[in-house]
C-alpha cells in the first residue's frame, strides 16, 4: 500500500469520526428541544454549539489537506 493510499484511508477515518460528531450534535439538539428544564436545554445547546464549532474547524482542515494532495 502506498503512502497516498494510507493517507486516503486516514482521511476516511476522520470523516467517519466527523459523522459520529454530527450524530452527537443532533442528539444534543434533540435533548435540548424536548426537555422541560431551561437549564438543561441551555447546557445541551451549548454542548452542541461547541461540538459544531470544533467539527467545522476539523472539517475545514481535513478538506484543506485533501485539496493539497
Keywords:
69 residues, mainly alpha, 0% strand
3D architecture notes:
- There is one protein chain.
- The protein is an all-alpha fold.
- The chain contains two helices and no strands.
- The chain has one domain.
- It is elongated, with a radius of gyration of 16 Å.
- The mean pLDDT is 88.
Please state roughly what percent of the residues sit in beta strands, choosing from under 5%, 5-15%, 15-25%, 25-35%, 35-45% or over 45%: under 5%
Low-confidence stretches: none
Average pLDDT figure:
88
Give the biggest sheet: none
| Helix proportion | over 70%
Strand tally is: 0
Shape designation: elongated
Q: How many discrete domains?
A: 1
Mind telling me the C-alpha Rg? 16 Å
The end-to-end span amounts to 17 Å
Q: Structural class of the helix and strand makeup? A: mainly alpha
How many H/I helical runs?
Answer: 2
Element-by-element helix/strand order? HH
Question: TL;DR of this structure?
Answer:
Helices cover 91% and strands 0% of the residues. The protein is mostly helical and 69 residues long.
Topology:
Elements: H1 3-34, H2 38-68
Helix pairs in contact: 1-2
